[in-house]
Amino acid sequence: MTNAKKHSNRHGYKTGEFVVYPAHGVGQIMAIEEQEVAGFKLELFVISFEKDKMTLRVPTAKATSVGMRKLAENALVAKALETITGRARIKRTMWSRRAQEYEAKINSGDLIAIAEVVRDLHRSDAQPEQSYSERQLYEAALDRMAREVAAVNRLHETEALKLIEAQLAKSPKRVKGAEAEAEVEAANEAEDEQEEAA
């Protein structure tokens, strides 16, 4: 049974504040309420993820351990936008393993890790098409990043996407030379792994 007693500030978070929940991205604290579960009083953050039409109840005492955090500071957003202009770093491992790593980065809630996924999976018009699973991961990372950039800069999500796309346009184009460079890098990595195994 939910107690009608509502709080407005707990554990440094307040009602109406936007937060990042690792597995779902940016949400808004709609209320801080008390519930009685098996005779124990439990205080909960009620977080709404409007875009996903979902509401999550997180015990206030567990907020930190589940990785919930405040929105990134402006400096971190700037660093994330700078990250996506860098050269893609693609490991020459099996796609299934890389996909797992990308998914873990997206669900980490870490804005820089998410920006790295956007950078590594971005394809310009001149580049070959992405596979379905690559596209899914790219769009998931892009969506997470856009939502946080929008919330921090008080922009509409489409404006945040345009800002990210403008940054991506500045990234070094992966042309033949870059592909050759990546192959050399992969060969070097393979040598390193052989040396480590020896």
TrEMBL record:
<feature type="compositionally biased region" description="Acidic residues">
    <location>
        <begin position="180"/>
        <end position="198"/>
    </location>
</feature>
<dbReference type="InterPro" id="IPR036101">
    <property type="entry name" value="CarD-like/TRCF_RID_sf"/>
</dbReference>
<feature type="region of interest" description="Disordered">
    <location>
        <begin position="170"/>
        <end position="198"/>
    </location>
</feature>
<dbReference type="InterPro" id="IPR048792">
    <property type="entry name" value="CarD_C"/>
</dbReference>
<feature type="domain" description="CarD-like/TRCF RNAP-interacting">
    <location>
        <begin position="12"/>
        <end position="122"/>
    </location>
</feature>
<dbReference type="InterPro" id="IPR042215">
    <property type="entry name" value="CarD-like_C"/>
</dbReference>
<dbReference type="GO" id="GO:0009303">
    <property type="term" value="P:rRNA transcription"/>
</dbReference>
<dbReference type="Pfam" id="PF02559">
    <property type="entry name" value="CarD_TRCF_RID"/>
</dbReference>
<protein>
    <submittedName>
        <fullName>CarD family transcriptional regulator</fullName>
    </submittedName>
</protein>
<dbReference type="InterPro" id="IPR003711">
    <property type="entry name" value="CarD-like/TRCF_RID"/>
</dbReference>
<dbReference type="Pfam" id="PF21095">
    <property type="entry name" value="CarD_C"/>
</dbReference>
<dbReference type="InterPro" id="IPR052531">
    <property type="entry name" value="CarD-like_regulator"/>
</dbReference>
